[in-house]
Prior knowledge:
Number of domains: 1
Strand content: 25-35%
Structural class: alpha+beta
Strand order of the largest sheet: 1-2-3-6-5-4
Mean pLDDT: 79
Helix content: 10-25%
Low-confidence stretches: 1-27, 33-38, 40-58
Shape: globular
Order of helices and strands: HHEEEEEEEEEEEEH
Number of strands: 12
Radius of gyration: 45 Å
CATH architecture: Beta Barrel
Largest sheet: 6 strands, antiparallel, barrel
Amino acid sequence: MADAPSPSEPAASDPAASESSSGGRGRGWVWPLAYFLVGAVVAVAIFAVVDRRGGSGSDQAAPTTTGPTSTTAAPAVAAKVYRTIQPSLVLIQAELGGSDAGSESLGSGVIFNAQGQVMTAAHVIDQATSIEVTFADGTRTDAEVVTSTPERDIAVLQPEDSPRVIVPAVLGGGVRIGDDTYSVGNPLGLADSLTAGVVSGLDRSIGREDGGGDLTGLIQFDAAVNPGSSGGPLLNRQGQVVGIVTALANPSGQRFFVGIGFAVPITSAGGGARIPPS
């Protein structure tokens, strides 16, 4: 008869029970880890899908390659207008006779044909006993009146000598209220001065300085003009002559600019200058 185990001896452990107990502890931490890894894989997959969808959607622009951006600003319109007209500008100085004997008239003009003839305002050379013109290249020469049409305040001068290079201005067409406009002349003797403004009105009428009636069909503009500007070109954005400056409004009787200038449209000035219609 086998001896009963002593109370002090430990009982033999059941291998199956031991294995089962050990296996239970392993699965207790293996499965959470497996769940974590599977979740991480799913999260990465979802992120990849979202990222790809975002990259191909309409809300995100595809990366593009562009050339280097120029840091040189385009020249201002006024600067281009000035460069266009500058070779055609003329300074006019006339010694006057008659009631203004001993005084001098200062004005502006513009070369308008290949013969180097100069268009200006008729009142600039009215009663002149001698006329001198200075071209943009510095050439100075005497000039004679070819035609003068006071009712349009337009005159044409024929210089005795021409500049080294004759650059006739390009004559433009009509203008509209609100169009940008530029005046270039010799106000107060400040040669080749540029001012800018807009066309303020059309078909204006003002009285002539000689009291011989009205000048009609004029362009009103607000680019600054002063004595010495008369006869200079009024220009559009392309540097084309659209008028010849004839007067400034002076309700106070003072000969300085108050915000209103007038020009003879080139379509009318051309008739006064005997320019054949194009």
